[in-house]
Each structure stands twice: as C-alpha cells, then as structure tokens.
Write a structure and sequence with these properties.
By secondary structure, the chain is mainly α. The chain is about 75% helix and about 0% strand. The chain has two domains: about 45 residues; about 80 residues, no CATH class. Helix 4 crosses helix 6. The two termini are about 35 Å apart.
C-alpha cells in the first residue's frame, strides 16, 4: 500500500532537487562562480578545525557509541533503520513484505544482543564479524 504523504514528500524532494540543479547550472554559466567558490573554500579550509575523517568516524565504530545507543534504548531502532537502508539500497527489497521486515527485525535483535554483550564484556568489536 502506498502512503500518499510519502509520495507527496518524494515529489517535493524532487522539486527541490530540480531547483537546486537549475540554480547550479545557471551559476555554472557565470565565469566568476568557480574562482569565487574556490577562494571561499580555500579561506574556509584555513580556519576550519583540523580533524581527520578517520577520527570523526571512529566514534561510530566504537564501543562507546554502542553503549550510548543501548543506554538510551535506541540501539535496536538504529540497527533496524540501518539494516532497512541496506536491504533497500543493496538488495532492492520491499520493506512492506512481511518476510523482509521479519528478517530485518531478527537480524537487528541478534546484532543488538551481540553488540551489547561484546561491549559489556569489553570484547573487541572486530571479533563480531
């Protein structure tokens, strides 16, 4: 069953994307756009904090992140949403099918238990793979 609000939201997102693309194309015709943009990026990069991408992302692969989600009772939801995204993106499966939804829920429950047990026992998360 199709949700009319979801379709309307998708149509709105498409309109916004088209407006952005139209603006981008119009700006790209202006010869001064790219040198100005390059200068803005250069100035920003000089004042931006120097934090490596690996350092920023390491928290999301850490036991601390798992513990935080578990303590806030958000771990299973986070895992379900992440798995649903992967099922749609990589497997092109319909989340409205009962067997797909059951598979995601079962896998999220199993992962949540394993992650919670591993972080409680201070086991390396690499052993869970």
């Amino acid at each position: 069953m199709t949700n009319p609000r979801r379709i309307q939201g998708f149509a709105h997102a498409q309109e916004q994307a088209q407006c952005f693309l139209d603006t981008l194309l119009a700006e790209s015709q202006n010869p001064g756009t790219f040198p100005s943009l390059a200068e803005d990026i250069h100035q920003w990069s000089q004042s931006a904090p120097k934090v490596s991408l690996a350092h920023k992302l390491s928290f999301f692969n850490s036991p601390a992140f798992i513990k935080k989600l578990a303590s806030e009772k958000k771990l299973k939801r986070y895992l379900r949403e992440s798995l649903a995204y992967l099922y749609v993106r990589d497997l092109d499966l319909d989340l409205n099918q009962a067997d797909v939804a059951d598979s995601i829920n079962d896998l999220a429950d199993d992962l949540a238990k394993r992650l919670t047990d591993a972080t409680a026992d201070n086991i390396s998360m690499d052993t869970l793979i």
